[in-house]
Amino acid sequence: MIQDNLKKIQETIPSGVTLVAVSKTKPAEMILDAYAAGQRHFGENKVQELTEKQEQLPKDIYWHLIGHLQTNKVKYIAPFVHLIHAVDSLKLLKEINKQAKKNNRIISCLLQFHIATEDTKFGMTRAEVEELINSDAYQEMENVKLCGVMGMATLTDNESRVREEFHHLKNEFEYFREKYFSDTDQFSVISMGMSGDYQLAIEEGSTMVRVGSSIFGQR
Ligand SMILES: *Cc1c(COP(=O)(O)O)cnc(C)c1O
């Protein structure tokens, strides 16, 4: 079933879009099923669950931390994490840089933007991101690499609203890429779209979708 679901989704995703299979709450056997079908990018939203799965599962999996990350937990994932999606403060980025340095790594990160009209979701505004990037602390960081943006749309069946929110994130991405990263190609990721809205997200420019329940079933 998982392999069929994956295949169906892969068929609807253009080649330039990375599919992150969100395996949170699902057992390792299910991840191995997807792995056997060729899937290598997996996303988790809890640090403890992520580290437990990373220990048990094949070492060539690219692990994405997609959920809110507490500063005091960065050290547990710093040795292996492939991409941290939800950087929402300078304080968190400082800690990622510190732990990356300890592990002799450069950790790739995405800036989480607040794009939903709901106030329950984390994320920064353009002004906050601007302040982060312009800070002396960020300028001095050598062990983090900002690779793009991430956002979560409002949970609603109002399609035009979701589309607008994705469009907004794409605009923010373009703004920051042109202003701060125009001389490099490191800033290239737009992480947006989940099971319910990834097709819309791709139409609005997503380069990375995070799909859970459509692959592994309801949680
Ligand atoms: C759970 C989760 C997803 C996947 O959600 P589905 O609706 O199951 O596809 C994507 N992104 C984040 C940040 C999540 O926490």
From TrEMBL:
Residues 2-218 form the Alanine racemase N-terminal domain. Keywords: Pyridoxal phosphate. InterPro entries: Ala_racemase_N, PLP-binding_barrel, PyrdxlP_homeostasis. It comes from the Bacteria. Belongs to the pyridoxal phosphate-binding protein YggS/PROSC family. NCBIfam families: YggS family pyridoxal phosphate-dependent enzyme. Pyridoxal 5'-phosphate (PLP)-binding protein, which is involved in PLP homeostasis. This is Pyridoxal phosphate homeostasis protein. It comes from Wandonia haliotis.
